[in-house]
Amino acid sequence: MAGLAASGSNPDVGLLYDINGLAKDAPHWLDRIVGFVGEFGLLAAMGLLLLWCWWGVRRRAGSGEEAASAVAALVWAPLAAAVAVLVNVPIRGFVERPRPFLDHDGLEVLVSGKTDFSFVSDHATLTMAMGVALFVANRRFGLVGIGLGLLEGFCRVYMGVHYPTDVVGGFALGTAVALLLSPIASMLLTPLVAAVERSPRVGGLVRGRAARTAAHDAVLPGARTEAPSEERDLAA
Q1: Could you give the domains of the chain?
Q2: What pLDDT is recorded for position 183?
Q3: What mean pLDDT do residues 130-156 have?
Protein backbone atom coordinates (compact mmCIF):
# COMPACT_ATOMS: atom_id res chain seq x y z
CA MET A 1 0.00 0.00 0.00
CA ALA A 2 2.82 2.41 0.86
CA GLY A 3 4.47 1.65 -2.47
CA LEU A 4 1.33 2.52 -4.33
CA ALA A 5 1.01 5.76 -2.42
CA ALA A 6 4.51 6.77 -3.45
CA SER A 7 3.65 6.49 -7.12
CA GLY A 8 3.15 9.85 -8.79
CA SER A 9 0.63 8.36 -11.21
CA ASN A 10 -1.56 7.09 -8.39
CA PRO A 11 -4.94 8.93 -8.52
CA ASP A 12 -5.16 8.56 -4.75
CA VAL A 13 -2.11 10.80 -4.38
CA GLY A 14 -3.35 13.20 -7.04
CA LEU A 15 -6.68 13.64 -5.26
CA LEU A 16 -4.82 14.09 -1.98
CA TYR A 17 -2.84 17.00 -3.44
CA ASP A 18 -5.95 18.50 -5.04
CA ILE A 19 -7.97 18.50 -1.81
CA ASN A 20 -5.09 19.42 0.46
CA GLY A 21 -4.14 22.17 -1.98
CA LEU A 22 -7.32 23.96 -0.94
CA ALA A 23 -5.74 24.42 2.50
CA LYS A 24 -2.78 26.23 0.98
CA ASP A 25 -5.01 28.72 -0.78
CA ALA A 26 -7.36 29.24 2.17
CA PRO A 27 -6.86 31.88 4.89
CA HIS A 28 -5.00 30.73 7.97
CA TRP A 29 -8.04 31.24 10.20
CA LEU A 30 -10.12 28.96 7.99
CA ASP A 31 -7.47 26.23 8.13
CA ARG A 32 -7.48 26.47 11.93
CA ILE A 33 -11.26 26.08 11.99
CA VAL A 34 -11.20 23.09 9.63
CA GLY A 35 -8.39 21.53 11.66
CA PHE A 36 -10.41 21.81 14.88
CA VAL A 37 -13.65 20.68 13.25
CA GLY A 38 -12.00 17.71 11.57
CA GLU A 39 -10.19 16.61 14.71
CA PHE A 40 -12.82 17.23 17.40
CA GLY A 41 -15.83 19.23 16.21
CA LEU A 42 -17.59 16.71 13.98
CA LEU A 43 -17.23 13.94 16.56
CA ALA A 44 -18.84 16.24 19.13
CA ALA A 45 -21.57 17.17 16.65
CA MET A 46 -22.30 13.50 16.06
CA GLY A 47 -22.66 12.96 19.80
CA LEU A 48 -25.03 15.92 20.11
CA LEU A 49 -27.07 14.64 17.17
CA LEU A 50 -27.41 11.27 18.88
CA LEU A 51 -28.55 12.93 22.12
CA TRP A 52 -31.07 15.05 20.21
CA CYS A 53 -32.54 11.97 18.55
CA TRP A 54 -32.70 10.14 21.90
CA TRP A 55 -34.48 13.09 23.52
CA GLY A 56 -37.14 13.08 20.82
CA VAL A 57 -37.59 9.30 20.91
CA ARG A 58 -38.09 9.13 24.67
CA ARG A 59 -40.69 11.94 24.53
CA ARG A 60 -42.72 10.49 21.66
CA ALA A 61 -42.40 6.78 22.37
CA GLY A 62 -45.69 4.87 22.61
CA SER A 63 -45.67 1.49 24.28
CA GLY A 64 -42.83 0.24 26.44
CA GLU A 65 -41.81 -2.28 23.79
CA GLU A 66 -41.71 0.41 21.11
CA ALA A 67 -39.62 2.68 23.31
CA ALA A 68 -37.20 -0.10 24.22
CA SER A 69 -36.67 -1.04 20.58
CA ALA A 70 -36.13 2.56 19.48
CA VAL A 71 -33.70 3.42 22.28
CA ALA A 72 -31.82 0.14 21.82
CA ALA A 73 -31.22 1.10 18.19
CA LEU A 74 -29.77 4.43 19.35
CA VAL A 75 -27.56 2.75 21.96
CA TRP A 76 -26.10 0.65 19.17
CA ALA A 77 -24.80 3.75 17.35
CA PRO A 78 -21.89 4.58 19.72
CA LEU A 79 -21.28 0.89 20.34
CA ALA A 80 -21.00 0.31 16.59
CA ALA A 81 -18.41 3.09 16.40
CA ALA A 82 -16.41 1.52 19.24
CA VAL A 83 -16.55 -1.96 17.67
CA ALA A 84 -15.51 -0.60 14.27
CA VAL A 85 -12.48 1.17 15.75
CA LEU A 86 -11.46 -2.04 17.55
CA VAL A 87 -11.72 -3.95 14.26
CA ASN A 88 -9.52 -1.29 12.70
CA VAL A 89 -6.65 -1.96 15.11
CA PRO A 90 -5.45 -5.19 13.44
CA ILE A 91 -6.19 -3.73 9.98
CA ARG A 92 -3.85 -0.82 10.61
CA GLY A 93 -1.17 -3.13 11.96
CA PHE A 94 -1.44 -5.42 8.93
CA VAL A 95 -1.41 -2.71 6.23
CA GLU A 96 1.16 -0.45 7.96
CA ARG A 97 0.56 2.50 5.65
CA PRO A 98 2.48 5.62 6.70
CA ARG A 99 0.79 8.99 6.96
CA PRO A 100 0.79 10.85 3.63
CA PHE A 101 2.99 13.71 4.86
CA LEU A 102 5.76 11.20 5.60
CA ASP A 103 5.98 10.07 1.98
CA HIS A 104 4.99 13.23 0.10
CA ASP A 105 6.45 16.70 0.24
CA GLY A 106 4.55 19.94 -0.07
CA LEU A 107 1.46 18.97 1.92
CA GLU A 108 -0.21 21.46 4.23
CA VAL A 109 -0.55 19.50 7.48
CA LEU A 110 -3.04 21.16 9.81
CA VAL A 111 -2.67 18.78 12.77
CA SER A 112 0.71 17.71 14.12
CA GLY A 113 1.75 14.73 16.21
CA LYS A 114 0.24 11.98 14.03
CA THR A 115 2.66 9.05 14.35
CA ASP A 116 0.34 6.07 13.90
CA PHE A 117 -0.53 4.36 10.62
CA SER A 118 -2.88 5.92 8.11
CA PHE A 119 -5.13 3.15 6.73
CA VAL A 120 -7.93 3.18 7.65
CA SER A 121 -9.03 6.49 9.14
CA ASP A 122 -10.39 6.14 12.68
CA HIS A 123 -12.31 9.41 12.38
CA ALA A 124 -14.01 8.33 9.16
CA THR A 125 -14.76 4.93 10.67
CA LEU A 126 -16.24 6.40 13.85
CA THR A 127 -18.47 8.98 12.24
CA MET A 128 -19.77 6.74 9.46
CA ALA A 129 -20.50 3.86 11.85
CA MET A 130 -22.54 6.20 14.04
CA GLY A 131 -24.23 7.82 11.06
CA VAL A 132 -25.29 4.52 9.49
CA ALA A 133 -26.43 3.04 12.81
CA LEU A 134 -28.40 6.22 13.45
CA PHE A 135 -29.96 5.91 9.99
CA VAL A 136 -31.19 2.41 10.91
CA ALA A 137 -32.80 3.88 14.03
CA ASN A 138 -34.14 7.12 12.51
CA ARG A 139 -33.78 8.01 8.83
CA ARG A 140 -34.08 11.77 9.24
CA PHE A 141 -31.38 12.01 11.88
CA GLY A 142 -29.38 9.29 10.16
CA LEU A 143 -29.12 11.27 6.93
CA VAL A 144 -27.69 14.17 8.89
CA GLY A 145 -25.28 11.78 10.60
CA ILE A 146 -24.10 10.32 7.30
CA GLY A 147 -23.62 13.86 6.01
CA LEU A 148 -21.41 14.62 9.00
CA GLY A 149 -19.44 11.46 8.29
CA LEU A 150 -18.84 12.49 4.68
CA LEU A 151 -17.74 15.94 5.83
CA GLU A 152 -15.36 14.32 8.33
CA GLY A 153 -13.75 12.32 5.54
CA PHE A 154 -13.23 15.44 3.44
CA CYS A 155 -11.69 17.26 6.40
CA ARG A 156 -9.19 14.47 7.07
CA VAL A 157 -7.83 14.72 3.53
CA TYR A 158 -7.95 18.52 3.57
CA MET A 159 -5.90 18.45 6.77
CA GLY A 160 -3.19 16.37 5.09
CA VAL A 161 -3.35 13.48 7.58
CA HIS A 162 -5.07 10.86 5.39
CA TYR A 163 -5.23 9.65 1.82
CA PRO A 164 -8.68 9.57 0.19
CA THR A 165 -8.57 5.76 0.22
CA ASP A 166 -7.99 5.84 3.99
CA VAL A 167 -11.28 7.69 4.28
CA VAL A 168 -13.14 5.43 1.85
CA GLY A 169 -11.85 2.41 3.77
CA GLY A 170 -13.12 3.96 7.00
CA PHE A 171 -16.54 4.57 5.46
CA ALA A 172 -16.71 0.94 4.29
CA LEU A 173 -15.60 -0.45 7.65
CA GLY A 174 -17.97 1.70 9.68
CA THR A 175 -20.91 0.90 7.41
CA ALA A 176 -20.21 -2.83 7.44
CA VAL A 177 -19.99 -3.05 11.23
CA ALA A 178 -23.09 -0.90 11.79
CA LEU A 179 -25.26 -2.87 9.34
CA LEU A 180 -24.00 -6.44 9.71
CA LEU A 181 -24.04 -6.47 13.50
CA SER A 182 -27.24 -4.45 13.88
CA PRO A 183 -29.61 -7.47 14.13
CA ILE A 184 -27.46 -9.11 16.81
CA ALA A 185 -27.13 -5.82 18.69
CA SER A 186 -30.89 -5.29 18.60
CA MET A 187 -31.53 -8.80 19.90
CA LEU A 188 -29.14 -8.28 22.82
CA LEU A 189 -29.82 -4.64 23.65
CA THR A 190 -33.63 -4.51 23.42
CA PRO A 191 -34.29 -6.76 26.47
CA LEU A 192 -31.76 -4.77 28.50
CA VAL A 193 -33.32 -1.45 27.54
CA ALA A 194 -36.79 -2.88 28.24
CA ALA A 195 -35.65 -3.79 31.75
CA VAL A 196 -34.41 -0.23 32.24
CA GLU A 197 -37.74 1.14 30.97
CA ARG A 198 -39.63 -0.84 33.62
CA SER A 199 -37.48 0.55 36.41
CA PRO A 200 -39.22 3.29 38.43
CA ARG A 201 -35.91 5.08 39.01
CA VAL A 202 -34.22 5.10 35.58
CA GLY A 203 -37.16 4.31 33.31
CA GLY A 204 -37.23 7.96 32.22
CA LEU A 205 -34.05 7.33 30.23
CA VAL A 206 -36.11 5.20 27.85
CA ARG A 207 -39.55 6.80 27.98
CA GLY A 208 -40.30 10.29 29.25
CA ARG A 209 -42.84 11.11 31.93
CA ALA A 210 -45.31 12.51 29.39
CA ALA A 211 -45.20 9.30 27.35
CA ARG A 212 -45.68 7.18 30.47
CA THR A 213 -48.60 9.32 31.65
CA ALA A 214 -50.28 9.16 28.24
CA ALA A 215 -49.95 5.38 28.17
CA HIS A 216 -51.31 5.14 31.71
CA ASP A 217 -54.30 7.37 30.90
CA ALA A 218 -55.03 5.32 27.79
CA VAL A 219 -55.45 2.23 29.95
CA LEU A 220 -57.56 3.79 32.71
CA PRO A 221 -60.59 4.80 30.59
CA GLY A 222 -60.96 1.22 29.39
CA ALA A 223 -60.91 -0.04 32.94
CA ARG A 224 -63.58 2.50 33.96
CA THR A 225 -65.87 1.61 31.07
CA GLU A 226 -65.59 -2.09 31.75
CA ALA A 227 -66.64 -1.79 35.42
CA PRO A 228 -70.22 -0.54 34.82
CA SER A 229 -70.78 -3.26 32.24
CA GLU A 230 -69.80 -5.90 34.79
CA GLU A 231 -72.15 -4.33 37.33
CA ARG A 232 -75.00 -4.42 34.80
CA ASP A 233 -74.33 -8.08 34.15
CA LEU A 234 -74.47 -8.83 37.85
CA ALA A 235 -77.67 -6.84 38.21
CA ALA A 236 -79.28 -8.77 35.35
Answers
A1: 11-197 (1.10.606.20)
A2: 94
A3: 96
